[in-house]
Amino acid sequence: MIAARAALLSLILLGAALPVGADDDRDHERAREAFRSGRAMPLEAILARAQADFPGDILDVEFEDEDGRIVYEIKTITAEGRVLKLKYDAATGDLLRVRGRNGKGEGGHHGKR
């Protein structure tokens, strides 16, 4: 199921012919261009890292530009039910930040694990 979800997210991120809004179209084009130019790793590689670091189900993936750095933001839910927001450097695959909730609104981590 996780592999199927990762494949679907890859298709969406890389601009498969699915109905999306205008903002999503721009994000897809930016992601495609960053991948083609070598400025971003493939989503599959980032998702594999996220799954290895934080096993669980992927809920959402966003492709963002933060202060000139391109990042993949991945929202996941762990087997324990903890929702995490992971940020990975799109070019290097380095984990930049982890924010999460343990049911009490607590948690967070900055930098590499």
Automatic annotation (TrEMBL):
Where, if anywhere, are coiled coils annotated?
A: none
Keywords per UniProt = Plasmid, Signal
Q: Which Pfam families match?
A: PepSY (PF03413)
N-terminal signal peptide: 1-22
Q: Where is the PepSY domain?
A: 41-98
Q: What is this protein called?
A: Peptidase
